[in-house]
Amino acid sequence: MSDREFPSRLRRRTVSGEIVAATIMIVLALPLTVVGLLQAAPEPLSHGQFTWIITLLVLLHVTGFFCTGRPIAAFVGGSVLMLLLAFTIVPGIGSAALLPSSVAYLLLLWRLASSQNRRHSLGALITGLLGVGLITAASAVQTAFSDRMTLLFETVSLIAAILAAWALGALARQSRLAEYRRAQESMQHAVSEERARISRDLHDVVSHSLTVMIAQAEAARIVTESSASRNSPEADAAFERVAETGREAMRGLRSMIHTLGDPDASPLTPVSGVDAIAGLVEHANSAEHTIELTVQGTPRRLAPDADLAAFRVVQEAVTNAIRHVRPPMRIDVSLDWQKTETVVTVGDDGGQGPLRRAADSHGTGLIGLVERVRRAGGDLDLRKGHGWRVRATLPVEESS
Q1: Among 277, 366, 257, 275, which residue's Cα sits nearest to residue 321?
Q2: Where in the chain is the domain with CATH 3.30.565.10?
Q3: What SUPFAM superfamilies does UniProt report for this protein, alphabetically (predicted)?
Q4: pTM, two decimal places
Q5: In the CATH scheme, what is the code of domain 188-395?
């Protein structure tokens, strides 16, 4: 992964640091270089030689400012400048590449290692080590190998500097990669949460409506069969088409929910609550499904997420009973308002036995329901006897 693939926030942080480092180097190292050239040489340098060396070193410093946007080009340019400096001999010093301003080359190496892939990074390291060999060779020729300990010290020091700059750059790249991955994971988690939100909303709202539509159509067919029009095959076929269309829509909806779904999701923005339960019960009632609502105690105020959770508990329990229990059947819904909590209970009498569970039903509703109630600060209990009973306990808000 190259530097351009990192988030812009991470790139800006590194760029500002490199500009500061390049500025500090040119402010501190360049004056030391000038002093070194003027004092270290046993004889004053010629004007042309002095100008040549200073020009190369100033250009090397300048590349430090360009390495932020073009690290490879800056490193190549810096390597060419260092090659010219390596074979420029300064009396009393040796290779001009040993002057203080040459430290700017380490910034170029660090930048490339911290921003480019492993192939480019290793290529830069090899280039730097080859440069050490050339500098050592130039100094050895200038001193005629008279001071081998000094040559050894210079060589070891240069190799250590090159390795340190490269290693620090590689570590910086790994650190930035780790931060980038964390940012990617955070973004993917947010996308998954949003997908799960869509999944839950589809299931809670559309699935219930389709289930009730199927139940009403089948109940109407039974009523029609017992009336004067019982011998009308056209009416019977029409009702069957309505029910089958609803079943097909349910299968497609479940498939989409299974594709989008994620069991971990935050609550949806409340669109219904306890006040809508009575309308839900009335709408779901049919000739084959008798649903009654009982309210005990004084209604209290619920937090928005608990209010929505109470509605979804009734909606999901009624939907599942209609979907999975053979009619005729009875469903009892009760709201028990207590001092610190409200208890929502939905139970069915088992009807005429269970319907065959659809092969494409993934149980997303109950999984989401448990999580929704838990996030609202409540508990959900599912029990199976002759029929199913769903019991949710949700906290009420304290009076102000």
Answers
A1: 366
A2: 188-395
A3: ATPase domain of HSP90 chaperone/DNA topoisomerase II/histidine kinase, MFS general substrate transporter
A4: 0.47
A5: 3.30.565.10
